[in-house]
Amino acid sequence: MKKIIYIIPAVLLLIYGCNRQTESSQADVEAPVGVIDVTTKSIEEVISTTGSVYPRGVIELRSRIAATYYLEKNPRTGRQWQMGDMVRTGEVIARFEDREFVNSVRLEAQELNLELAESELQKQESLYEKGGVTLRELKNASVSFINAKYALENARLQMERMRIVPTIDGIIVDLPYYTQGTQIETNSVIVTIMDYRTMYLDVKIPEKYLNTIVSGQPARLTSYTIPNDTIKAAVSQTSPVIDAESRTFKGFISADNNNYQLRPGMFVKADIVVNRKDSVIVIPKDIILSRQRGKTVYVVNQGRANERIIVTGLETATEVEVVRGLNRDERLIISGYETLSQNSRVQIIR
Q1: Dihedrals φ, ψ of 14, to 5°?
Q2: At what angle do helices 135-159 and 107-129 cross, to 10 degrees?
Q3: Span 77-135, pLDDT tens digits
Q4: Last residue of a domain, one of 187, 222, 237
Q5: 101: domain range?
Q6: Domain total for the chain?
Q7: Rounded to whole angstroms, how far apart are CA atoms 11 and 25?
Q8: pLDDT tens digits for 56-86?
Q9: How far is CA 162 from CA 69, 151, 169, in A?
């Protein structure tokens, strides 16, 4: 009977020792984690919006008379003008022929009439100085000269109807086809030209940024058709009025487009930089755990996970500034952190 009594405590001690060994081995399990070194860099807070860009200038030139149509040649290529050609102010895109119209203008007669009126005026001025004519006769000569001058100017303006000449530098974006030598009607569209060396974007900005967004604020444009290129831009104008329905205010963003990356009508995304900080600690946003004590991350210290309560600042879609709670060169756990607790043993996976 005494032997049985001694055996039972021995068994209990054995079981207790095994449990303690199991707990100790479980406590020594190292959780695999990935880490990065805590460093400093720049971070920006941006407002993102989208819209279509439009050009600095656009003109549509139409025929101002009914006449015979002839498309001219591009002086730089030697071929007839085509859509996509760059055109400069004063270059002739097309010309018209109509002898009846030219005869009605009487340009040469108006030029000759001006010469005669100018000669007569000079003669009358000379005679007036010598007392040979009255002041009235001199003024009549002046009136005749002025009338002849205006008549010639009007004749030249009428003759300008015989040509299609752009008043801006730009790109031909539309050029309706007409057969050479065909008769076209008055007000027919001949060519459309756009100047898109500068592009504009009309944006709606949330009301809370009314006193933050000002002219000159930097911005960046990206397009789905050119995803790898970022185009520098800036806020050019803002409205002081809030739209009562959308709770936004209107703004304009402009961008230099000298290399013609952007095309009129292209849909773009605009990021307006409202705040920027340099040389601050920035970490991935998705590794932050929200706990009762606050925002938490883990760092590795002597093979164990140390919990850190952090205070954050500026945020982007993927990153956040850490104002307090982390130091440079610490090793921040960025994977395998979900099941960690304070002082958990960890193994860094390269």
Answers
A1: -65, -45
A2: 160
A3: 999 999 999 999 999 999 999 999 998 989 899 999 999 999 999 999 999 888 888 89
A4: 187
A5: 64-187
A6: 3
A7: 21
A8: 999 999 999 999 999 999 999 999 999 999 9
A9: 9, 18, 20
